[in-house]
Design goal:
With 162 residues, the chain is an all-alpha fold. The chain has one domain. Helices cover 70% and strands 0% of the residues. The protein is built from 5 helices and no strands. Helix 1 runs parallel beside helix 3, helix 2 runs antiparallel to helix 3 and helix 3 packs antiparallel against helix 4. The longest helix is centred in the middle third of the chain and has 30 residues. The relative contact order is 0.10.
């Protein structure tokens, strides 16, 4: 019996997936919620200078997370063999903006969460240590191909009518 789901093939070899995955939806929700709390927390006062550095790090971390999420999506659509490693790193990068927001809102709890995030980062990095050269080669090659396609133009010949 064939499935009526358009995301599966008749042989059933292709997995069904939605994007973004549920964990990323939770990260998006928490970043939005904590950002609103941050706005409420500093509605009547100016944040200290240290926290402006943390906010800059937050924006950089959020940008890196968004980029890694886009890379995960592209590799998922092309069926990469490094997809599991990319997923782990993307989730790890997605938690960093949350940790930085917690560091601003509740400094003591933020330090504890940042320390646990750093320990988990070391653990994941050590577990993927052998895979990093292959992973970086694969992702950088893919990104160069995408950039090459985006920035090179083919000159189109207009038909000449006489």
């Amino acid at each position: 019996m064939e499935s009526s789901n358009p995301s599966t093939e008749s042989s059933g070899t292709r997995k069904e997936w939605s994007f973004p995955p549920p964990l990323h939806k939770i990260i998006f929700f928490l970043v939005t919620t904590l950002s609103a709390f941050l706005q409420l927390h500093y509605s009547n006062q100016t944040p200290p200078v240290e926290q402006s550095y943390i906010m800059q790090a937050f924006f950089v971390a959020l940008s890196v997370y968004s980029t890694s999420l886009a890379i995960e999506y592209e590799l998922q659509t092309h069926g990469s063999s490094h997809l599991d490693n990319i997923k782990r790193m993307t989730l790890l990068l997605g938690v960093l903006p949350l940790v930085l927001l917690m560091l601003i809102l509740c400094p003591l709890y933020g330090l504890l969460t940042f320390a646990s995030w750093a320990i988990y980062l070391v653990r994941v990095t050590l577990s993927l240590y052998q895979e990093y050269p292959k992973l970086l080669t694969h992702v950088s090659g893919w990104m160069l191909d995408v950039l090459k396609r985006k920035f090179t133009r083919e000159e189109k010949q207009l038909p000449l009518s006489l």
